[in-house]
TrEMBL record:
Annotated GO CC locations: Golgi membrane
Subcellular location: Membrane
GO molecular function, one term: UDP-galactose transmembrane transporter activity
Keywords from the named record: Membrane, Transmembrane, Transmembrane helix
The keyword Translocase is assigned to this record: no
Lipid bilayer topology: Multi-pass membrane protein
Domain Sugar phosphate transporter: 15-297
UniProt region (Disordered), positions on chain: 302-335
Source organism, top-level taxon: Eukaryota
Protein name as annotated: Sugar phosphate transporter domain-containing protein
Keyword Transmembrane helix recorded: yes
Amino acid sequence: MSSVSKADRKAALDVASWFFNVVTSVGIIMVNKALMGTYGFSFATTLTGLHFATTTLLTVLLRWLGYIQGSQLPLPELLKFVLFANFSIVGMNVSLMWNSVGFYQIAKLSMIPVSCFLEVVFDKVRYSRDTKLSILVVLLGVAVCTVTDVSVNFKGFLAAVIAVWSTALQQYYVHFLQRKHSLGSFDLLGHTAPVQAASLLLCGPFVDYWLTEKKVYAYDYTVISMFFLVLSCSIAVGTNLSQFICIGRFTAVSFQVLGHMKTILVLMLGFFFFGKEGLNLQVILGMVIAVAGMVWYGNASSKPGGKERRIYPVPSNKSQKQEDLSDSTETDEKV
């Protein structure tokens, strides 16, 4: 009976984690669309730095309240993670600037096979035939409803390659570091957010000026634009945390596959709030195919043999690290 209730509790927490991530991710996209599109705040890298600065304030508060306990993360691994994460942020922004929207969407879709490759190489993961086919169906569905014009040049292609690989490595490391060092989502954020905030706020204005030829300090800050800026930073805290929770509970591949549900929701909300001129039979068909693929993936990967992975080697202090990991997971669930 206890095993059944434990499984039900895990399933409920899994659903809650995905719902938390979907709501915050879709919310921040819609807010940033208004902030950048309507009010002209086109400084994406600096904005991301402000997101992580706000996240850092939350981790400091939670540590003061006792929700985050002292933990260790080796400096080389911290710097490696931050390097991948920052290259991901800048690379995606540059890729969007230098490539067409269609090729940018193709680059985003390619993160799934790259994430699969990383799991196969580093974790010796084996996927069943149904799991592989379900991933292909998701890719097909999202491509049908999002990929339109496709044009690319050499520098745009190079930026897309850097963005895809750095994003895949960053998301892989989220899961890897949590398991290897028995870190909860808040613990890992407590280590990485301050370094990311400092580095992005330092280089962000220069990167944004390079991309937009506009200075963030010369922006006309109004009451409404500041409201959307604060709202974006507030939602970003939930987005950053939910990403770490989801990847920690699942894997980077599952996060990418099921995460395309956010793409579908953003399209639907965009049609609802900003007009239906882009809504046609092709888009609707792509949405249906993508959702069917996600349902198939969830079912196929959860079956025995659907996705088998190697467990990380555990040092001699196995019981202590397992206890620490359990405490960290309970902290995530409580908060």
